[in-house]
Amino acid sequence: MAENDKDSTTEFDEDDNEEDIPLEKRKKIFSKELRCMMYGFGDDQNPYTESVDLLEDLVIDYITEMTKKAMEIGKSGRIIVEDIIFLIRKDPKKYSRVKELLLMSEELRKARKAFDEIKYATTK
Prior knowledge:
disordered N terminus, 5 helices
């Protein structure tokens, strides 16, 4: 059993580990969006850079952990939406938000398809 645990962790250790890269040299992926979100939730319009960096580290850690967990429960090498839903099933806020976003995505997809069909029919 310990060998399986060791094998699953070494799979991720082979890649460049973000924890090994100093914070100053790490790419800021979400900083602009996080600044806007922080302002929207009541922070200053220009929040401290340290606050944004800390929040970004937390977000990246959360995404990494959820991805690792989803890789463990699903088919090997693939993550599907159902894997994420399974992981958050016991958190009602996250579950309802994911459900809402998936329904909205489906509605938008159907609306685009209908729009494209109308556009295609009028051009002929």
